[in-house]
Amino acid sequence: MSVLADLGVFDHILVLIMFLACILPYISAYMGNTSMALATILSLMLVSFVQFAISIFQGVPVEMSWPVSIFGIKPAISGSPSESYRFFTSAWIHAGWIHVLGNILVVGLVGIPLEQRMGGKRWLSVYILGLLGGNIAWVLTHPESMIPAVGASGAAFGLLGAYMACWPSDEVEFPLLFLIRAWPIWIIVFFRLGLEIWQMYSLQTGTSGETNIAHMAHVGGFFLSYSMARRISRGGPQLLERDMTDGNTMPTRKIPELGTDPWRLSGAPLEGKSLRVLEKLIEEGDEMETRRAWLEELSEHTICPVCGGEILAVTKNRQTSIKCGVSESHLMWP
Predict the structure, then answer these.
(1) I need a surface site. Which of 85, 87, 93, 122 has the fewest CB within 10 A?
(2) What is the C-alpha separation between 286 and 294, in angstroms, rounded?
(3) Under a CB-based contact definition with an 8 Å cutoff, are residues 286 and 254 in contact?
(4) What distance in Å separates the CA atoms of residue 334 and residue 149, rounded to the nearest whole number?
(5) Dist CA 25 CA 259 (whole Å)
(6) Residues 132-141: what's their mean pLDDT?
């Protein structure tokens, strides 16, 4: 029987609150067609806030509170169907603020530009692969352990693995060697993954002390996402790096031409801030993600040139347009 059954009524209410804190950012991102990476950051922060509040209420260290025991991955019992939920829930539980902030840092600095490359749904797929790969690796290498392992580090390393597989030359702002600057992804991976492997070797040979860091989970998350990322990313908003120089690949997805804006055609050209947004759209809107951002911004500052109604930004099959909220016959552009 799951230890969830041992909780009191108030603790079950806290479990429900943690569940809502976890999923509501994703529901909002899906319905609003906004960033899954930002939703993940918010989800991790909200769940951690509840978890740490529980530890304060209990008067025990975070790692000793009941969310760690109930939701952390325990290899010795992971084969039981009733305990399989731990493979997912453990990625939202952390051992302290430094732990969760370290993972949020990677999701923010690496995950956001990766999502812009591959799109939200594909991004979420490689994120989940990373957290599963990390937990599977931990279970396979520590099959008798009942010590709960927690954290989104496997998923964070999975993002590094996916980025390395698809666009290794991309540069992102990242802190390495006390320097915060734009580093190519392959250098970030070389440093971070190399450090993990070196630490694992040090533990194996007995040259370092005991550790509570699940290095094998980091490596497992990295390699599972790395192995699947190119397959997942094909057909996404942007070509993979090696495909860009491969003459046998399909061309980049065609983006509709903007043409003359409907406000000018209607004889009421835009002015002020709306005009500046339109100019930015025309100047920078040759990539899907950039065009979507400027069209969404434009929809907030303009009205329909036909009826004066609200303008909405809609995305379908990764193509974004703006339309009149009253009737598409008034405006659907581009």
Answers:
(1) 85
(2) 11
(3) no
(4) 50
(5) 36
(6) 93
224 within 8 A of 158, measured Cβ to Cβ: yes
Q: Per residue in 296-333, pLDDT tens?
A: 888 888 888 888 888 888 877 567 888 888 887 788 87
List the structure tokens of 182. Answer: 């734009």
3-state helix, strand, coil in the chain (%, to 5): 60, 10, 30
User: Under the phi-then-psi rule, with left for phi > 0, alpha for psi from -120 to 50, and beta for the rest, what region is 317?
Assistant: left
Residues 107-110: contacts with CB within 8 Å, 24+ apart? Answer: 107/37, 107/40, 107/41, 107/44, 107/152, 107/155, 107/156, 107/159, 108/37, 108/41, 109/172, 109/173, 109/174, 110/156, 110/159, 110/160, 110/163, 110/172, 110/174, 110/185, 110/188
Amino acid (one-letter) located at 20: L
For residues 48 and 166, give the distance between their C-alpha atoms in angstroms, rounded to a whole number.
31
- Nearest alpha-carbon partner for 236 in 305, 162, 301: 162
In the chain, % of residues over pLDDT 90: 41
Q: Which residues contact 144 (CB under 8 A, 6 or more apart)?
A: 75, 76
Which has more pLDDT, 309 or 148?
Answer: 148
73 forms bridges with which residues in the sheet?
149
- Counting every residue written for the chain, the total comes to 334
Cα(285)–Cα(166) distance, integer angstroms: 23
The full set of domain ranges for the chain reads: 3-242, 262-333
Rounded percentage of the chain residues whose pLDDT exceeds 70: 89
Where residue 237 falls among pLDDT bands split at 50, 70, 90?
Answer: confident
Q: Which residue has the tokens 């980091």?
A: 218
pTM of the predicted model as reported, rounded to 2 decimal places: 0.72
C-alpha dihedral over 206, 131, 83, 58, to 10 degrees? 80
